[in-house]
C-alpha cells in the first residue's frame, strides 16, 4: 500500500458520526450484565438506580470539563495532546506511553476475548475457538478502519442503531408490561452500607468509561471547537438515560430477589421470558453487535494516539507509525501496530487483568487533565471564547473529586495493581530520554 508523509487526516466526521462513536464505544456488554452486581452491592433497587445516576453525573461532569479542553486543543491524540500542551512533552509522553503499549491493546484484547466467549457459547462450539474468533473480529474491524474514516464512522452508526433495538425493547417491556414496583424493593440478605454503595458507584463509573476516546479523533471532526463538546455532552446524556432505562426496565420486570439469584444471567432470563426463545436469541445477537460497535470505536480511535506520538518522535519506528495511507488518509501502520499487539496479548496474557492494571494510572491522568481547565483559563484569559464548562468551577471540581474517588478506591482495593501500573509507566522514562537524544542527534546531523 502506497504511503505519503505529506498526506493529512481527513476532517470529515460530522455530529452524527461523533455521537455514534461516543455512544457506541461506551455501550458494550456492561449495560446488559451489571444490573445484578450493582443491586447486590446496594441492597435495594432505589439505591441501585441512584448509583447509576450518580455514576452518570460524575461522568457528565468529566465530559463537560474535558470538552472545554477539547475545544481549545482540537488535535488528533486526545488526552496525549492535552497533557502535552498543558504540562509539556514529558507528561504527554507518559500519558501516551501507557495507552499505546498496554492499555489500548489490552482493552481491545479483553473486549474481543469476551466476544469470542459469547460466540462459542451462542453457536455451541469448542472453547478452543475463542481466541481465533477474537483475533478474526479485531482483524476485520481493523481492516475496515484502514479504509477512509467514513467507513468506520458508518459502522459505528449502524451498530449503535442495532444495539439500541434490544435496549429499547427492554425499556418498553419493563415500563408497559412489568409487574414489579421497580423502586423500593430490598434484598434482605445484603448488608447495606455507604461502603457498598461507593463500590456500586465505582462499578457504574467503569460502565460509563470510554467516551474520552472520541477526543483522539479531534483532528478528523468537522468544526471540532463546536461539535466535539456537543458530541461528548449529548452522548454521555443519552448513555445515562439508556443505562437508567434498562436498569429500571429490568427492575420492573423481575423481583429484586430473582435478579439477585440470576446474577449476570438476569438479562438473558428476562429476554427469554419476555420475548420467547427467539427473542432471547435476538437479544444475545444484539449484545454481540453492541460489543462489535465498542470494538470498532476503540480500534478506530486508539491508533490516532500512536500516530500523534509518532509525529512528535515519541515512539520507536516513529517514521513508520506516523505515515498515512495516500488514498484513505488513515493511519494504516498505526492500526496494524495496535492489531499486532492486541492479537499477541489475546494469545499470551490475561487481557482482563492487564486492562485493570491500567485503571489507576489512566484515571490519574484524567484528574491531571481536569485540573488543566483551571490552568488553561489563566493561560488563555484573553483568548477567544470557545466552549466553556457550565457551572465552573463547581463542575470541574466535582469531576476531579469523582475521578479521585476512583483512583483512591483502586489504590486501596488493588495496591499491587496500582504499583504495577506505576512501574510499567516508569519503564517509559528511559525510552523518553533515549528517543529525545536520538532524534535530537539526527536533526543535528541533518543540519550539518
TrEMBL record:
What broad class describes the main subcellular location of this protein?
membrane
The domain of life for this entry's organism is Bacteria
- Its transmembrane ranges are 12-33, 39-60, 100-123, 129-147, 154-177, 197-215, 227-251, 271-295, 330-348, 354-377, 389-409, 415-435
Cellular component terms, GO, for this chain's entry? Answer: membrane
Quote the protein name from its UniProt record: Amino acid transporter
- What molecular function does GO assign, one term? L-amino acid transmembrane transporter activity
Compartments where located? Membrane
Q: Which UniProt keywords apply?
A: Membrane, Transmembrane, Transmembrane helix
Bilayer topology annotation: Multi-pass membrane protein
Which organism does this sequence originate in?
Answer: Levilactobacillus namurensis DSM 19117
Amino acid at each position: 500500500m502506497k504511503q505519503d508523509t505529506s498526506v493529512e487526516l481527513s476532517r470529515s466526521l460530522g455530529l452524527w458520526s461523533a455521537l455514534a462513536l461516543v455512544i457506541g464505544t461506551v455501550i458494550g456488554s456492561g449495560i446488559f450484565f451489571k444490573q445484578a452486581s450493582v443491586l447486590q452491592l446496594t441492597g435495594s433497587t432505589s439505591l441501585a438506580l441512584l448509583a447509576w445516576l450518580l455514576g452518570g453525573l460524575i461522568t457528565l461532569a468529566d465530559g463537560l470539563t474535558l470538552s472545554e479542553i477539547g475545544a481549545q486543543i482540537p488535535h488528533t491524540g486526545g488526552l496525549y495532546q492535552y497533557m502535552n500542551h498543558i504540562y509539556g512533552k514529558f507528561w504527554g509522553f507518559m500519558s501516551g506511553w501507557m495507552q499505546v503499549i498496554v492499555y489500548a491493546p489490552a482493552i481491545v484484547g479483553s473486549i474481543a476475548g469476551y466476544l469470542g466467549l459469547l460466540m462459542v457459547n451462542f453457536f455451541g462450539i469448542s472453547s478452543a475457538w475463542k481466541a481465533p474468533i477474537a483475533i478474526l473480529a479485531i482483524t476485520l474491524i481493523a481492516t475496515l478502519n484502514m479504509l477512509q474514516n467514513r467507513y468506520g464512522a458508518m459502522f459505528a452508526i449502524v451498530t449503535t442503531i442495532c444495539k439500541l433495538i434490544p435496549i429499547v425493547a427492554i425499556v418498553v417491556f419493563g415500563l408497559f408490561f412489568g409487574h414489579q414496583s421497580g423502586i423500593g424493593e430490598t434484598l434482605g440478605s445484603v448488608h447495606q452500607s455507604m461502603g457498598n454503595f461507593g463500590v456500586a458507584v465505582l462499578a457504574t463509573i467503569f460502565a460509563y468509561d470510554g467516551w474520552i476516546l472520541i477526543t483522539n479523533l479531534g483532528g478528523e471532526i468537522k468544526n471540532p471547537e463546536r461539535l466535539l463538546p456537543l458530541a461528548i455532552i449529548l452522548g454521555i446524556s443519552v448513555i445515562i438515560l439508556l443505562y437508567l432505562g434498562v436498569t429500571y426496565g429490568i427492575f420492573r420486570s423481575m423481583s429484586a430477589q430473582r435478579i439477585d439469584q440470576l446474577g449476570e444471567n438476569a438479562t438473558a432470563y428476562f429476554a427469554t421470558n419476555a420475548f420467547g426463545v427467539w427473542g432471547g436469541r435476538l437479544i444475545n445477537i444484539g449484545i454481540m453487535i453492541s460489543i462489535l460497535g465498542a470494538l470498532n470505536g476503540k480500534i478506530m480511535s486508539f491508533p490516532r494516539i500512536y500516530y500523534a506520538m509518532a509525529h512528535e518522535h515519541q515512539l520507536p519506528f516513529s517514521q513508520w507509525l506516523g505515515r498515512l495511507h495516500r488514498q484513505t488518509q488513515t493511519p494504516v501502520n498505526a492500526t496494524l501496530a495496535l492489531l499486532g499487539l492486541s492479537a499477541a496479548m489475546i494469545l499470551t496474557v490475561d487481557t482482563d487483568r492487564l486492562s485493570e492494571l491500567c485503571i489507576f494510572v489512566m484515571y490519574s491522568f484524567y484528574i491531571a487533565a481536569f485540573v488543566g481547565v483551571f490552568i488553561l483559563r489563566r493561560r488563555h484569559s484573553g483568548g477567544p471564547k470557545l466552549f466553556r464548562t457550565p457551572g465552573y468551577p463547581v463542575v470541574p471540581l466535582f469531576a476531579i473529586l469523582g475521578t479521585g474517588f476512583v483512583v483512591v478506591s483502586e489504590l486501596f482495593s488493588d495496591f499491587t495493581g496500582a504499583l504495577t501500573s506505576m512501574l510499567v509507566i516508569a519503564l517509559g522514562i528511559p525510552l523518553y530520554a533515549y528517543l529525545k537524544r536520538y532524534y535530537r542527534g539526527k536533526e543535528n546531523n541533518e543540519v550539518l
